[in-house]
Amino acid sequence: MLSNRSVLVTGAAGTSGVGFGVVQAVIEAGGRPIINGRSADRLAEAKERFPSAETVQGDISDAAQVDRIFAEAVEKVGQVDFLVNNAGIGLHKAPHLCEEADFDRLIGVDFRGAWLMARAWLRHVLGDRERVEGAAAMVNISSIHGQKTMPGYGLYAAAKGGVDALTRSLAVHYGRQGIRVNGVAPGYVHSEQNYDLIRNWTDNPEGWVDDLIRNHQAVPELIEPIDVGRVVVFLLSDSARAMTGQTLTVDGGSTTLLYPMNFV
Q1: Full-model pTM
Q2: Which terminal CB of the chain, N or C, has fewer other CB atoms within 10 Å?
Q3: 156 classed as catalytic
Q4: Of 153, 156, 174, 188, which one is the catalytic site residue?
């Protein structure tokens, strides 16, 4: 579906998480991933796992580093056909207890970083042309917190709601120029590292995940990173050529349930 197309995926260093699943799916679809991350060690891990991928180190919340990221990516692969804005950080804290530094860091990565990368990629694919030549598409990784949320995630939900709005606005603005912009909103995507986060609200993270899958999803299966990655590939591919401005939810149906499965 992405034969010989280059895909820059931010926040995809290491060997776990949604970014990891996106890189897996891009390779599965015949694409050429460029993996971005802040940590040289984690980029080395990703390179070892995916030898065919290129890697570019840099912090997407810093405008100067974003310019360098694109310069290095272009030097390595030439045209960057597709962008996946995956990099993001979380924040589980009551909004009134958050400091300005918490807010600035969250918005700087999750929202401002997505815009900085989008701006750099749009300048790259458009150049001085009024319309792109060939296929060009972007996918922003949002979250179900952009639609619904839970206590402790107020600012995170606001940041992801901003990403959803950015997706729609970019789609409307650049559609006439041959550029599609869509989003993916994952629910709970499993990785062992998630248990540390879940301990913020329960002493039994394994039991919490089991209850989530059995009672709070319509499909009682763990969502793996590759599941999200394959939806991203679909949105980048020509199979979704009539879709733009959409954010697809990948959550096993959790946001569709009116009541938990064990309610009746």
Answers
A1: 0.94
A2: C
A3: yes
A4: 156
